[in-house]
Amino acid sequence: MSFVLDNSVVMRWFFGDGSQKDLEYSLAVLEQVPLSRVMVPAVWSLEVTNVIVRAETKGLVSEARSAEFVRLLADMDIKEETIESSLVFGNVLSIARRYSISTYDASYLELAMRNGVELATLDVDLIRAANQAGVSQFLSQQM
Nearest-5° angle of CA 57, CA 47, CA 19? Predict the structure, then answer.
């Protein structure tokens, strides 16, 4: 099984916040990580670390907690897919415009579309865009 993992799910692992349904979904996705081929766009690690450093700056988490979480992520078999600028300037930009989402979110959707896999996300706008593009939410039938 393969899927694209969005940062919205990863941040539920880190913060443990959100609705009960979101937490249950994020934990169900986490259980599938060792059993699956997990892909993320190249922007993923920047998104993860940006949220972490902002949380540290606000005093919400310690650097030690962040370092532990980053080590856990590094130990997971998550394949960060590089993307050529021509693909960003073409497909990603087109997807962002078509579905009124950020280019960051469009990079996750484009990766799922290009590989013909589902998308693990809790982002409402990205779920809407994925549905419109014919991309299923990972584990949606089980939730």
Answer: 80
Residues 24-55 as b or e (16 or more Cβ within 10 Å = b): ebbeebbebbeebebbbbebbbebbeebbeeb
Cα separations in angstroms, 91 against 20, 98, 110? 35, 10, 7
CB-based contact 115:136 (threshold 8 Å): no
> Which CATH number do you get for residue 48?
3.40.50.1010
Structural contact between residues 114 and 82, judged by C-beta atoms closer than 8 angstroms:
no
How many domains does the chain divide into?
A: 1
* Domain range enclosing 136: 2-142
Token duo for residue 14: 């880190």
Nearest to 45 by CA among 68, 9, 73, 16: 73
Task: Write down the pTM of the prediction.
Answer: 0.92
Question: Could you say which DSSP state residue 28 is in?
Answer: H
Where residue 139 falls (left for φ over 0; alpha for ψ -120 to 50; beta otherwise) is left
From the list 18, 43, 16, 19, the residue with the least C-alpha distance to 30 is: 16
pLDDT digits (tens, 9 = 90+) for 24-39: 999 999 999 999 999 9
